[in-house]
Amino acid sequence: MFHVKLHGQDAMARGADEKLVSRRIKLPKREVEKPLRQVTRRLLMALFVMCLTVLIVWLDRGGYHDNADDSIDLLDCVYYATVTLSTTGYGDIVPYSASARLLNVLLITPLRVLFLIILVGTTLEVLTERTREEWRLNRWRKNLRDHTVVIGFGTKGRSALQTLLATGLHKEQVVVVDPSAKVVDIANAEGLTGVVGDATRSDVLLRAEVQKARQIVIATQRDDTAVLVTLTARQLNRGAKIVAAVREEENAPLLRQSGADAVITSASAAGRLLGLSVLSPSAGTVMEDLIQQGSGLDLIERPVRKPEVGKSVRETEDLVVSVLRGHRLLAYDDPHASPLQSTDRVITIVRAVPPHTPPATLGPAE
Hints:
- By secondary structure, the chain is α/β, with parallel strands linked by helices.
- It has helices at 15-20, 35-59, 74-86, 98-143, 155-166, 181-189, 202-207, 223-236, 252-258, 266-279, 281-291, and strands spanning 24-26, 64-66, 93-95, 148-151, 174-178, 193-196, 215-218, 241-246, 262-265, 297-303, 319-325, 328-331, 345-351.
């Protein structure tokens, strides 16, 4: 029986953010005007309409009648403009001349309508924005399938996603799950859809549409969290490819039993690279070059090309290191690896090239 070895604190278990932030989906934000600037602009517009109305009444103050003292001063003009724009007036100050009534019809009434539009504009915008977000969310749910779910957007999750994006994955096909609202905001700023919540809960993974995902990357900081997330994800999606990272090598078998297709031991892998760099700095440089996607040398998996069928692995154009035949992974020097079959896939080392440029081969192995 395996026991999970705990290590450190996990970004997936930060309870403070979970209490403050409800679990929700956050689509990438579109560029909008800042709220404070919107409010300031509308207040200035309302003030301008008010001042313009006061000016109109003041210039034609002789055409107005005040039931209190039969005289119209500046304060009366401000009062009349205020109650007229915000209501229909109280009847204590009324226009009685033909010019004053005409100005009320042609100018003050449209200004009243404009003033009311400014007042209710914020509420209308909130309702419109909410409706628009609901429509975007429903369309996102409808169109999303065969996507990639990245659970944990720390150093490991971000690096894994960068590698996937470098191979042609579109950001629209990625959903990030993290309990920190700030982390999800960072993902949104990069054009990614995020779900705020604890990925060990099935309802959070369902918000990420994990049941329709093609591949799931689990990059939590704690091994016990990774096991729980793997169990939950595998229960919701039996066919997805699940790749998980653990810190301690002794926890890797438990993750495989939980449903992970591949398990990467981050601590031991980093330790081996350190040791290799001490023994042979050049070999360490080559290994680091292979790990970094898009520069120097790249390790890729591809199907066997038609001209390569029936040939030995040493006769291919690329430097083949392994052959994937069915569910078997054969080393390049395995006698069963050659000759290559049409259904095989090969793992080769090629020189990294810029996007949209045919990859250059390293030549046949000696």
